């Protein structure tokens, strides 16, 4: 699971929350998912194939 690191800015490409931009805040190696915080109250887990690096 070296696709993304904590602090990376990513854009969601999966079916849930598509297009949202957030920050990787945690990595769950057991489940193979990244916790991405979209806003102060919104965050969700995504696999690496549901994310892409964000560049403005």
Strand order of the largest sheet: 4-3-2-1-5
Instruction: Report the major sheet.
Output: 5 strands, antiparallel
Average pLDDT taken over every residue: 96
Strand tally is: 5
CATH class: Mainly Beta
Tally of individual helices: 0
Strand percentage lies at 35-45%
Overall shape: globular
| Helix/strand class | mainly beta
Q: Level of helix content?
A: under 10%
Report the C-alpha radius of gyration, rounded. 10 Å
Order of helices and strands: EEEEE
Report the CATH architecture: Roll
What fold name stands as the CATH topology? SH3 type barrels
Distance between the termini: 24 Å
Instruction: Tell me the count of domains.
Output: 1
* Low-pLDDT stretches: none
Secondary structure elements and pairings:
Layout: E1 9-12, E2 21-28, E3 33-37, E4 43-46, E5 51-53
Antiparallel strand pairs: 1-2, 1-5, 2-3, 3-4
Report what the structure shows:
- This protein is an all-beta fold and 56 residues long.
- The protein has one domain: Roll (SH3 type barrels).
- The protein contains no helices and five strands.
- A five-stranded antiparallel sheet has the order 4-3-2-1-5, with no helix packed on it.
- A hairpin with a 4-residue loop joins β2 and β3.
- It is globular and about 25 Å long.
- The mean pLDDT is 96.
- This is Putative RNA-binding protein with RPS1 domain.
- It comes from Nonomuraea soli.
């Amino acid at each position: 699971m070296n696709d993304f690191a904590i602090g990376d800015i990513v854009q969601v490409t999966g079916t849930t929350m598509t297009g949202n931009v957030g920050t990787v805040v945690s990595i769950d190696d057991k489940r193979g998912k990244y916790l991405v915080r979209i806003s102060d109250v919104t965050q969700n887990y995504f696999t690496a194939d549901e994310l892409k690096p964000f560049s403005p």
